[in-house]
């Protein structure tokens, strides 16, 4: 009897991982126009089920434009191969929609969906619809259960991506204000769908690298990794692995070995971090979140003294001007004659400084695809500290 019982347990242990489908999601940084991102989402939906049924949710924009926004999204999805797409009118201004029961018309539709597209806008409005005060409404419980079972593929764009987080959801503070005054949050957690680390979006276009670094360092008890997704770029996630697709990149930040640092003798106790580690992934790169192993596609070649430019890396006085952080760091890996560079904030009271340095474990890769050059780098060390007027 006991032998039969343990044999059954062993059999279940062996077959359970095979029976479970991978969780699948596309996490985009906003302003998505790249066809590959939409096509990847539709492909995942079709892998999930033969009965494609995609719902579009625009709870983050005003109700007066929610439907027209959904029409645009549905038209785009159809353009790239979707065949069955419907607007789901969940919105705090659409009375009763957010609190729809599982047995309601909207609840029954969610039970049948194979994909959901969460548009951007105001993150707090999306959270207030589906998780007011941090408590999941019945429809979100259905989404959580079906996503966890692998029956539902999710797409988040901008605020829609932030809403997926299991971590505190950042507020609107800029990088500079976050370094000086600390982070703010609009919620203690989002939909509890992405638990691998902190998320941020529009990261290079709105220079949120400093914001993500302080959030991650101050709240490192929540996990060691942060993922900063650029515009028109996405993490195509399957369980703990993802591939980057799109025009720009994803900054993976790791503060596991980072420490507090003063930077200079007159910082008056201002916040600082030493040896945060940044890896910037671009289209085609794959990342295993558990092992932190990066796989580089064959079209990219390792940057060496033979392929780097015979120049020194420049510094900047506007490190958190949109796009500058990304420009400066990628330029460092093209500069054969420099192992380090730095940038100051435009703001001077106080003025912060960010130092970047390559080590023996820092590598750069570059390749061209469809006429666009993509640069990837691994293990760039970063210090952020108050420099003057502290």
Supply the key terms:
alpha+beta; 9-stranded mixed β-sheet; 390 residues; 28% helix; Rossmann fold; disordered N terminus
Give a verbal description of the structure.
The chain is of the alpha+beta class and 390 residues long. The chain has 2 domains: 233 residues, Class I glutamine amidotransferase (GATase) domain (Rossmann fold, 3-Layer(aba) Sandwich), CATH 3.40.50.880; 86 residues, no CATH class. It contains 10 helices and 20 strands. The protein is globular, with a radius of gyration of 22 Å. The termini are far apart.
Q: CATH-wise, what's the superfamily of the largest domain?
A: Class I glutamine amidotransferase (GATase) domain
What share of residues is helical?
25-40%
The percentage of residues in β strands lies in 25-35%
Give the strand order of the largest sheet, numbering strands 1, 2, ... along the chain. Answer: 3-2-4-5-1-10-11-14-15
Biggest sheet record: 9 strands, mixed
| Known CATH architecture of the largest domain | 3-Layer(aba) Sandwich
Cα-to-Cα separation, first versus last residue: 73 Å
At the fold tier of CATH, the topology name of the largest domain is Rossmann fold
Structure annotation, total helices = 10
Q: State mean pLDDT (0 to 100 scale).
A: 93
**H and E string:** HEHEHEHEHHEHEHEEHEEEEEEEEHEEEE
Any idea how many domains? 2
**Structural class computed from helices and strand pairing:** alpha+beta
